[in-house]
Inverse folding.
């Protein structure tokens, strides 16, 4: 009897806590407001759009087009901080499968005999009307086939990226079968919510000027691009016929809330901060930690949230080029750089030492620093004397000289690179920096015409994608020029076995990552914490950064601006 009493009491207490939480949440719920302009600075405000055409195979495509173009799948924001809080949606390109939802599809089915994936499209989705490009019409399976086929056959298509696809079969307007040649464990990322796979209308390519002309850009998303000013801004205007909605306080609201979104392009960091501080920008998605204390003093009303920066900045060394084909040289350069000093002096303590090639929030495959093998762990220490000894053993007792290209889009990264130059000089290695505009830097990296070194700012990717693109032989984002049979074989085995459980796959990848670190393909640098800041009139925002690789458009479509509050605060 007593046992039953206590069990009932426990159930009642749990219910009471749950009900209290529901009422507390309801009390905080505000009524959405429609209209107005939302001005923001995205994560990379210094970089102009590189391509408006998904067949350009540019990493920044989903970043710029994510307001008006949609993908088959996206992150389920209701499983984030605005809902069940199971995932924070802060990584650039890592969303576990269970936190995804359909966007242009309602659901999918996987069949293993024969290998195929069946997509069931969302009905009633309309393409935006674009004068001179296309009339409004319904989105159908033929559009998916056209877009993906064009992407796969594009001259710039990434090697082996879609090799697992055999053919597409249109069953009807809303049902599509993708027949597979073989299994690919990362198929969702490669063609449903990744950086390249936004579904693009056939009419965009056929319009005068072609698919890479911004005036021809159109989609099915919550906004339509209506203006682009090089080096200044990108403007997106509300799509009145958008299909999606948001439930707030138990009531469904059509999206988007604001009439217009202006995404500012500002290269100078001081100007970025001034625009945010003076209220000209409502939301600033990336703020270096060193500026936050001053912002809090000058503008105590601002709201902030901290997260690890979504990119890993390192100095890639070409393993196919002397002297970096000798692992002793690569290890020496790592030991010459005082990474803990960088954390304390450059980042004021706001950085993590070990985040390469994945940070600690990749729990399934991350090995903490103290549990790394001795060979891997040593790379994070500072030992210039041993660095000199290793160089002498490799035949470079007096050091050597080499060049490294670096993008000039970030002054902070240029400053950090200068510190690396100074550290290497202490062991007799002369590093010459070659700053260049981002498109030129990207071209050198993609075409593999970069010199022996390349300062490399790179998103982690998914668990599988990050290893593939950075370390598998022949991949476009492999500036290390790594070509290691063990890496290639392990990655292929994990990726191509449809019967391998996630647990076993992750265990294999976890060991592989330690092996990659041991090879020292880069000078591994600390990863900083950065802040996202917004004014209190920015409503229905919970610090999320991405719902797909480099894509935040659906997050911003759910934000509204409290115009009265903004006015009362004098802005």
């Amino acid at each position: 009897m007593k046992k039953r009493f206590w069990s009932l009491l426990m159930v009642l207490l749990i219910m009471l806590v749950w009900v209290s939480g529901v009422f507390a949440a309801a009390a905080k719920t505000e009524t959405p407001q429609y209209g107005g302009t939302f001005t923001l600075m995205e994560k990379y405000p210094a970089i102009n759009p590189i391509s408006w055409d998904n067949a350009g195979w540019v990493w920044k495509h989903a970043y710029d087009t994510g307001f008006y173009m949609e993908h088959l799948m996206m992150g389920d924001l209701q499983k984030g901080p605005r809902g069940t809080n199971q995932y924070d949606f802060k990584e650039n390109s890592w969303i576990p499968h269970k936190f995804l939802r359909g966007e242009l599809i309602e659901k999918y089915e996987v069949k293993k005999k024969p290998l195929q994936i069946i997509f069931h499209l969302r009905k009633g989705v309309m393409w935006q009307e674009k004068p001179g490009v296309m009339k409004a019409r319904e989105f159908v399976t033929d559009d998916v086939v056209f877009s993906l086929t064009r992407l796969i056959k594009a001259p710039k298509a990434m090697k082996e990226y879609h090799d697992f696809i055999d053919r597409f079969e249109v069953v009807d307007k809303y049902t599509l079968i993708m027949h597979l040649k073989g299994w690919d464990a990362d198929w969702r990322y490669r063609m449903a919510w990744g950086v390249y796979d936004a579904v693009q209308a056939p009419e965009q390519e056929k319009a005068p000027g072609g698919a890479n002309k911004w005036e021809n850009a159109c989609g099915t998303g919550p906004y339509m691009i209506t203006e682009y000013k090089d080096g200044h801004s990108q403007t997106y205007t509300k799509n009145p016929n958008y299909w999606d909605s948001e439930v707030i306080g138990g009531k469904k609201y059509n999206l988007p809330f604001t009439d217009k979104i202006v995404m500012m392009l500002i290269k100078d960091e001081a100007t970025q901060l001034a625009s945010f501080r003076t209220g000209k920008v409502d939301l600033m998605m990336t703020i270096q930690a060193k500026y936050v204390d001053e912002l809090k003093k000058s503008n105590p009303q601002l709201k902030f949230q901290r997260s690890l920066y979504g990119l890993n900045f390192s100095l890639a060394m070409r393993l196919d080029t002397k002297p970096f084909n000798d692992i002793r040289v690569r290890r020496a350069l790592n030991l010459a750089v005082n990474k803990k000093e960088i954390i304390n002096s450059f980042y004021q303590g706001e950085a993590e030492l070990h985040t390469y090639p994945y940070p600690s929030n990749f729990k399934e495959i991350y090995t903490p620093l103290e549990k790394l093998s001795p060979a891997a762990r040593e790379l994070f220490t500072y030992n210039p004397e041993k660095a000199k000894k290793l160089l002498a053993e490799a035949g470079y007792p007096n050091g050597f000289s080499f060049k490294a290209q670096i993008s000039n889009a970030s002054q902070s990264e240029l400053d950090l690179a200068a510190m690396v130059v100074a550290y290497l000089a202490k062991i007799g290695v002369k590093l010459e920096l070659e700053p260049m505009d981002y498109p030129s830097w990207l071209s050198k990296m993609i075409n593999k015409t970069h010199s022996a070194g390349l300062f490399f700012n790179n998103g982690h990717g998914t668990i599988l994608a990050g290893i593939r693109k950075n370390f598998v032989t022949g991949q476009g984002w492999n500036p290390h020029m790594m070509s290691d049979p063990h890496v290639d074989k392990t990655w292929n085995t994990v990726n191509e076995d449809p019967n391998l459980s996630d647990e076993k796959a992750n265990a294999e990848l976890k060991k592989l990552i330690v092996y990659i670190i041991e090879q020292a393909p880069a000078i591994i640098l600390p990863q900083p914490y950065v802040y996202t800041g917004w004014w209190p009139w920015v409503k229905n925002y919970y610090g999320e950064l991405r719902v797909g690789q480099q894509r935040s458009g659906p997050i911003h479509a759910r934000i509204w601006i409290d115009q009265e509050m903004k006015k009362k605060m004098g802005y």
Q: What stands out?
A: Confidence is low (pLDDT under 50) at residues 5-27. Residues 2-28 form the longest helix (27 residues). The longest strand covers residues 105-112.
